[in-house]
Write a structure and sequence with these properties.
The chain is α/β, with parallel strands linked by helices. The protein folds into 2 domains: 17-150 and 337-457, nicotinate phosphoribosyltransferase (Alpha-Beta Barrel); 162-330, Alpha-Beta Barrel (TIM Barrel), CATH 3.20.20. It has helices at 26-37, 65-74, 79-87, 93-100, 130-135, 137-161, 177-189, 198-204, 214-218, 223-233, 247-263, 278-291, 307-315, 327-330, 412-425, 445-457, and strands at 43-52, 60-61, 107-110, 116-117, 124-129, 165-168, 194-195, 238-241, 268-273, 298-302, 322-325, 339-347, 350-351, 366-372, 378-385, 393-394, 397-401, 404-405, 441-443. Strands 13-12-1-5-3-17-18 form a 7-stranded antiparallel β-sheet. A 6-stranded parallel β-sheet has the order 7-6-11-10-9-8. A hairpin with a 2-residue loop joins β12 and β13 (350-351).
Length: 460
């Protein structure tokens, strides 16, 4: 008889464990042991910010806050997780008691999603007992870093797309299941019209788009038969991939099929080009359709696209009506990371300051004050103390107080609209894809004075 193995990692379904509080760095738990052992439970203030923008990025779009708040609302340890920590020698009895009762009870202030932001600005401020504020760090950075990257990439694509249809096609090459779903969400916040990722449609109510693969065409004995079968199977949305063999020949096959389909009341909505010189091919295909009774058929392009290629296509006035952007979007290929941090700025009523070379922080609880020109275009930001009176609109808003949400859950369309309005208010120079442009982010006199005071009189 086979022996049933004892429970192990093989019994865990990895996907169901993504919400576990064990999705953290070990040093969060080792620090908690020390905090608890020395009764360091006073209130702490941490801030999340980006030290410097990636190359060829003149702005960022804040995203990922909704998932962070969801995590904080449900952050708790199961008996099985606590048992594992005990078995591994990670948690002593003191820490186990603390984690068994753990519920996040702090305050969260944040820049609303879809807002354009810049380097050295506090995008999220967490105020909570030190062990609580510390323990949430890893997941907080994980969620905000990723979606902010993708939303920014999507916004750059949307800026140059000139209002054409934009669809996220990147799931298959995203870095895992959660990344694929959240990339679709972030891309929508950044201005995309929809996604090919079905689960993202269900989770976030994002419009779902899809066509066909080359394998569908190859599985048929000829291209026309493949097109006919596909059109008859979903007559309400016929988009045909025409570059499996010869793109122009594929376009002619579509034209030849039109009378038969129209007899059944079926119209071909669009064709997709996925390879080759998209500018030249789209012009040739457009000419074929216009001359043969297919003037209403649109052309959708995909295959290795990013904001730079879209900008080139739009500049050439190619007759392309929409773009599917895949790998480069979902991994933010040209800027796959943010130099972001979550740092202690105050503990037990005293401002704290890190002074490491190249990574020094500005101390205290801070706020972003935004200034605009008379025409509404952004003019500059000031990072000041939260308590000081500074001109400008305050960007950090209360999202959670005492561990409970105080901000309403916003529809994704509202976040997208905020992003679009942010893009409209950007100075033209900041919209460039490759030319660096500075946006003034000043640090207030009060913040600088507090830093000087700490440097002169403490070791914090």
């Amino acid at each position: 008889m086979p022996i049933n193995p004892s429970p192990s990692w093989r019994d865990l379904h990895w996907l169901s464990e993504l919400g576990s509080p064990l999705l953290t760095d070990l040093y969060q738990l080792t620090m908690l042991r020390a905090y608890l052992a020395h009764d360091m439970l006073a209130e702490a203030v941490f801030e999340f910010y980006v030290r410097r923008l990636p190359e060829q990025r003149n702005f960022l779009v804040a995203a990922g806050l909704e998932q962070l708040l969801d995590v904080l609302e449900t952050f708790s340890f199961s008996d099985a997780e606590l048992s594992w920590l005990e078995e591994q020698g990670i948690a002593d009895n003191n820490l186990l008691r603390y984690l068994r009762e753990f519920r996040f009870a702090g305050d969260v202030y944040a820049v609303p999603e879809g807002t354009v932001v810049f380097a050295n600005e506090p995008l999220v401020r967490v105020v909570a007992p030190l062990p609580q504020a510390q323990l949430i760090e890893s997941r907080l950075v994980n969620l905000l870093n990723f979606q902010t990257l993708i939303a920014t990439k999507a916004a750059r694509c949307s800026i140059v797309a000139n209002g054409e249809l934009m669809v996220d096609f990147g799931m298959r090459r995203a870095h895992g299941a959660e990344a694929a779903a959240l990339a679709s969400r972030a891309a929508y916040v950044g201005g995309f019209n929809g996604t090919a990722t079905v689960l993202a449609g269900r989770l976030f109510d994002i419009p779902v788009y899809g066509t066909m693969a080359h394998s569908f065409v190859q599985a048929h004995d000829n291209e026309r038969l493949a097109f006919e079968h596909f059109a008859n199977s979903q007559p309400e949305n016929v988009v045909l991939l025409i570059d499996t063999y010869d793109t122009i020949a594929g376009a002619r096959e579509v034209l030849a099929l039109l009378p038969l389909l129209r007899e059944s009341g079926i119209e071909v909505r669009a064709v997709r080009l996925d390879s080759g010189d998209l500018i030249a091919l789209s012009r040739e295909v457009r000419a074929v359709f216009d001359a043969g009774g297919g003037a209403d058929i649109q052309i959708f392009a995909s295959g290795g696209l990013n904001e730079y290629e879209i900008e080139r296509i739009i500049a050439a006035q190619a007759p392309i009506n929409g773009f599917g952007v895949g790998t480069d979007l979902d991994v933010s290929a040209d800027a796959p990371k943010l130099d972001c941090a979550y740092k202690l700025q105050e503990y037990a009523g005293r401002a704290r300051r890190k002074r490491s070379t190249g990574k020094a922080t500005w101390p205290g609880r801070k706020q972003i004050y935004r200034h605009c020109r008379e025409d509404g275009i952004l003019a500059g930001d000031t990072v000041g103390l939260d308590a000081e009176e500074t001109p400008g609109a305050s960007l950090l808003k209360p999202m959670m107080l005492g561990g409970r949400r105080v901000a309403k859950r916003e529809p994704l369309d509202q976040l997208q609209q905020r992003c679009r309005e942010s893009m409209e208010r950007l100075p033209t120079s900041l919209k460039s894809l490759s030319e660096p442009a500075d946006y003034p982010v000043d640090v207030s006199v009060a913040v600088r004075a507090l830093a000087d005071e700490i440097d002169r009189g403490t070791t914090c």
